[in-house]
Write a structure and sequence with these properties.
This protein is mostly helical. It is about 55% helix and about 5% strand. The strands form two sheets. The protein has a three-stranded antiparallel β-sheet with strand order 1-2-3. The protein binds iron/sulfur cluster (2 copies). One of its GO terms (cellular component) is plasma membrane.
């Protein structure tokens, strides 16, 4: 099972707009996440090396080097002097997320998101409601902790426990420590707290959330006057606090928080088409409108 077939949050949209329109963005995200993971796995599994490396650092056809800026920053804190291809690879990724939304990484790239979405789907299916309150600022504390640990140890500290890297290693080796971490994340999201990992604890999401504050691509509550207060968007959203100012405020209908993953879940779930993908255009808008 890799995600929802019919989840509770989409029930109203499903009845009104049909399966495809209520799952469009979910389908696109899964396609993106599985394709990217598949590209990394083609080499180790089938000997087809289009992409070498992992989500931390990779090269495409030995031509383009890409690097996760969070890894690069940890390296710098650890005292590493990065080579130019690594720095430019990190700059390319940073620029991409400055356009697409930093946490588009979480919704569209990270394979662990498939695991946490599945836990969320199971919670809805089974009616599990236990939701131990976690402070979403915890991830910023963990982020600062990883930088401190990198400075202290001279290593890229988060990589020792990073579920994203461990998942990839586990898929290559078949067994290992990685599966335990992935299982722990899954059980945490299922039994302890709603969206515990991605929305409260993961420092990778916190890092990309900081980048995403200035991003151009945004979800907009363009038709907010049509809202019926059904709550479906808040139910499905991994970061529901981001919706309130755009949907209920008097200012811009754009969702401007860096925490928004641009996942399109609210677009899928809303039965009256309040949301759409849009862009912020500061060079065309002024003051409160933006
Ligand atoms: S506001 Fe919409 S696009 Fe943003 S994280 Fe929530 S569901 Fe996803
Ligand atoms: S925007 Fe309003 S109508 Fe649409 S899902 Fe959210 S609460 Fe329901």
């Amino acid at each position: 099972m890799i995600g929802p077939l019919i989840s509770g949050s989409r029930r109203l949209s499903l009845g009104k707009r049909g399966w495809l329109r209520s799952h469009k963005w979910w389908l696109l995200r899964r396609f993106s996440q599985i394709t990217l993971l598949g590209l990394f796995m083609l080499g180790p599994w089938a000997g087809i090396w289009i992409v070498r490396g992992n989500f931390a650092a990779s090269d495409i056809a030995r031509l383009v080097v890409l690097a996760d800026p969070y890894i690069v920053v940890q390296g710098i804190f650890g005292g590493a002097i990065h080579a130019w291809p690594v720095l430019s690879g990190a700059a390319v990724i940073t620029l991409a997320y400055l356009v697409l939304g930093g946490r588009a990484y979480c919704g569209w790239v990270c394979p662990v998101n498939i695991v946490t979405d599945t836990a969320f789907w199971l919670r809805e299916k089974t009616g599990l409601t236990r939701d131990r309150k976690l402070d979403r600022r915890s991830r910023l504390v963990i982020l600062a902790g990883t930088l401190f640990a990198s400075a202290l140890t001279g290593a890229v500290a988060w990589e020792f426990v990073n579920p994203v890297s461990l998942l990839q290693r586990a898929l290559i080796s078949g067994i290992g420590f990685g599966w335990s971490i992935i299982l722990a994340v899954f059980l945490l999201d299922l039994f302890v707290s709603r969206r515990a990992w991605c929305s409260h604890l993961c420092p990778v999401g916190a890092f990309y959330g900081l980048i995403g504050r200035g991003a151009l691509v945004r979800v907009s509550a363009t038709r907010r006057s049509a809202c019926t207060d059904c709550g479906a968007c808040f139910n499905i959203c991994p970061e529901p606090h981001v919706i309130v100012p755009a949907l209920k405020g008097q200012g811009s209908p754009l969702i401007l928080s860096g925490d928004c993953q641009n996942c399109g879940g609210c677009i899928d779930a809303c039965p009256v088409d309040v949301f759409q993908i849009s862009t912020r255009r500061p060079w065309l808008q002024t003051g409160a409108a933006e």
